[in-house]
Amino acid sequence: MIGLRRPLLGALLLASGSALAGGCQQFDTGHGPVDLPGCRLDGGHVVLESSALGALDYDTDGLAVVLAGDGYHLVTRQGRSLPVPTYDNGPDALQEGRVRGRVGKRLGFFDARLQPAFATTFDFAWPYEDGRARVCNGCRPGPPDDSGDGHVPVVGGEWFWIDRQGQRLPD
Questions:
Q1: What percent of the chain is predicted at pLDDT more than 90?
Q2: Average pLDDT along the chain
Q3: Measured distance CA(83)–CA(3) in Å, rounded
Q4: Global pTM?
């Protein structure tokens, strides 16, 4: 059984702001969510006007975080966006040049330009560490554990490791 954090902080932040009303917010670590005029959610992706793109706080990889709909989205300076899972109560981050992104109800891996790293998607995936990622197909969220810290186990399915090109590694 693998532990997975539920998006507790993200859900609280979104419920407290206007992102649920179809707008977007950027997350300011010093002040919490801040409304982002010129941003909207369309078909599961954020669409930003140039004024909104210019207002975002980009990290050293050129990515910014936007809250929209029911989750986090990474955005490039060019306006490409990717819905990402919540990890430890925040947006998934680029690790070893890869970030997990939502592809329908599955997860895929993307590069720093938010382009697919490879075509394969998975029912669940952990971030890359030491050049490989643990993934599964056929797994599903289980019942929340009793710890009260928001962990939901991922149960069942077939678990295996993949390399940076998405190829299955020997056990």
A1: 65
A2: 84
A3: 21
A4: 0.83
